[in-house]
Amino acid sequence: MARPDKAAAVAELADQFRSSNAAVLTEYRGLTVAQLKTLRRSLGDDAQYAVVKNTLTKIAANEAGISSLDDLFNGPTAVAFISGDPVTSAKGLRDFAKDNPNLIIKGGVLDGKALSADEIKKLADLESREVLLSKLAGAFKGKQSQAASLFQALPSKFVRTAEALRAKKAEQGGAE
User: Fold this and answer.
1) pTM for the full predicted model
2) Are 23 and 81 in contact (CB under 8 A)?
3) I need a labelling partner for 129 at 20 to 30 A (CA). Which of 2, 21, 98, 138 fits?
4) How much is the average pLDDT of 81-96?
5) Does the pLDDT at position 103 exceed 60?
6) Residue 58 has pLDDT above 80, yes or no
7) Do 69 and 107 form a contact (C-beta atoms < 8 A)?
8) Gap between the terminal Cα atoms of the chain
9) Which bin fits 99, alpha (ψ -120 to 50), beta or left (φ > 0)?
């Protein structure tokens, strides 16, 4: 029978897996406490970085419906539970791992889909959600202004053609 403290830890981890947008598993072997503190700050307010026990976390992930991470629970493991923009937190992890090679990104999950370490690095290379949305809005605005100028050009061209036709008729009628 499971001890109450372990059952509570599994329940808390399962809730974190369910409530987060993404979770990234890392190996932190060789990092000091000060470096881990710096890493937590670099992830921002929307992420919680926790050192976890592999067996309990594996059980919690399975309870949350995430079985794709089972192979990643070996060695010292820490999980970044991301509740905000996953791109920002992925950038924080990537940048910290560049400066501290002891941090190894193992993989993760984003909206229920398993991600490899390479996919997390590609996610970190994306621009933030706000930048992508502003680019999309600019593209929509650009297309609308192109459509408006196209719709305005047709009647304008028609008026110029009709005026040229009227002037030609007046010229022909005046010459005879």
Assistant:
1) 0.67
2) yes
3) 98
4) 86
5) yes
6) yes
7) yes
8) 112
9) alpha
Q: What is the pLDDT of residue 1?
A: 42
Query: Quick one: how far is CA 160 from the chain centroid?
Result: 51
The whole-angstrom distance between residue 165's C-alpha and the CA centroid of its chain comes to: 58
Integer Cα distance of 33 and 22 in angstroms: 24
CA distances from 46 to 75, 90, 145 (A): 26, 11, 37
Q: How far is CA 114 from CA 5, 58, 172, in A?
A: 29, 14, 78
Who's near 144: CB < 8 A, 6+ residues apart?
Answer: none
Residue pair 76/51 in contact by the 8 Å Cβ criterion: yes
**Percentage of residues in the chain with pLDDT exceeding 90?**
1
* CA distances (Å), origin 147, targets 62, 162, 174: 51, 23, 41
Give the list of residues 6+ apart from residue 121 with CB closer than 8 angstroms, or none: 90, 94, 105
Percentages (nearest 5) of helix, strand, coil residues in the chain: 60, 15, 20
Bridge partners (DSSP) listed for residue 92? none
pLDDT of res. 174: 57
Q: How far apart are CA 84 and CA 45, in angstroms?
A: 8
**Strand, helix or coil for residue 26:** strand
Cα separation, 73 vs 87, in Å, equals 23
CA distance 86 to 71: 22
